[in-house]
Amino acid sequence: xxxxxxxxxxxxxxxxxxxxxxxxxxxxxxxxxxxxxxxxxxxxxxxxxxxxxxxxxxxxxxxxxxxxxxxxxxxxxxxxxxxxxxxxxxxxxxxxxxxxxxxxxxxxxxxxxxxxxxxxxxxxxxxxxxxxxxxxxxxxxxxxxxxxxxxxxxxxxxxxxxxxxxxxxxxxxxxxxxxxxxxxxxxxxxxx
Length: 192
What we know:
- The chain is an alpha+beta fold and 192 residues long.
- The strands form 4 sheets. Strands 11-12-7-13 form a 4-stranded antiparallel beta sheet, covered by helices on one side. A 3-stranded antiparallel beta sheet has the order 1-6-5, covered by helices on one side. Strands 2-3-4 form a 3-stranded antiparallel beta sheet, covered by helices on one side.
- It has helices at residues 3-6, 62-83, 149-162, and strands at 9-10, 16-20, 23-27, 32-36, 42-46, 51-55, 86-93, 98-102, 105-109, 116-119, 125-130, 140-146, 172-175.
């Protein structure tokens, strides 16, 4: 049995849960999210005790075991998203690299012969702290926030995929808490 799946989800104040059949709708101060639960997993909303319980009716089935923890995690992320929201911070290292937001698009200038434009989904907000890098030491910084953790994570991963950090000078786009493993460049032997 899934240890994560067994834990009940506490419903914070200001969050409303509605359940119609297999669909669970969570609304709070940040917004509203909806999820269609898998038919193999039962979800019980206990409004008197302010908690959601995810029940696995057939614990011997391997697929149900896997879905048990997954459904609980998705519901917990929805509750956290509508109450607090999620945020990821990114940094861009490299001389002359920059980032700006214009007309609902994120425009990245990161060493290609053309700027890279990415459409920002309407549920996601981008806040730019430092627009351009200054040398290789001071990075451009921006943060991406939203209420849907899956959508936010996918968008941030797509941004990072444009130019992941390279191991020699560390140039590229990385998460603010990411450690880049550095390699030593070529050592030239002196001619004798």
